[in-house]
Amino acid sequence: MPKRVVTGIVTSDKMSKTRRVEIARRVKHPKYGKYVKRRTICYAHDEENTSGAGDLVELIESRPMSKLKRWELTRVIEKSTAVDLAALRAARKHAAETEAIEAAHIGDEDEAQPAADSDTTDNNTENAQ
Predict the structure, then answer these.
(1) Distance from chain centroid for Cα 85
(2) Which domain holds residue 119?
(3) 27-68 pLDDT per residue, tens
(4) Which of 44, 75, 89, 105 is the most buried (most CB within 10 A)?
């Protein structure tokens, strides 16, 4: 019997060499006849860690690799274009904090220099008298 091939969207890439993939499908409700969204969650082996969250991937059925892993990632069909807003906000906040610290250090250096200059001018005036 041939191995099954399915496509799905990666929902988690936090594990090393393992991806959580969601396979969406539509099923007709037995009583009401309305089409309802259903999903299947699969854990797939990704040897090179090529996929990321939100990517559309192709999976092929394989031997059991662990308690949950029964699929192997064959290829990434489409890379995700989603932007991680939390990471962007954290990076922006870190940059602002770094800039504030640097500005504070520059302000300290500016205050230190005039004091040194005033000492030299006092010495010059004393020497001139």
Answers:
(1) 9
(2) 83-124
(3) 999 999 999 999 999 999 999 999 999 999 999 999 999 999
(4) 44
> Using CA atoms, how far apart are residues 112 and 106, in angstroms rounded to an integer?
10
DSSP conformation class of 45: E
Map tokens 């904090």 to a residue.
97
Asked, for residue 90, whether it belongs to a domain, the answer is yes
Q: In 3D, which of 69, 53, 70, 57 has the Cα closest to residue 12?
A: 53
What count of other Cβ atoms lies within 10 Å of the Cβ of residue 10?
Answer: 21
Do residue 38 and residue 66 come from a single domain?
yes
* CA torsion through residues 36, 42, 48, 52, sign: positive
Which pair of tokens denotes residue 33?
Answer: 């006849």
Q: Which residues pair with 106 in a beta bridge?
A: none
Residue labelled with tokens 């192709």 = 58
User: How is 19-42 classified by DSSP, letter by letter?
Assistant: EEEEEEEEEE-TTT--EEEEEEEE
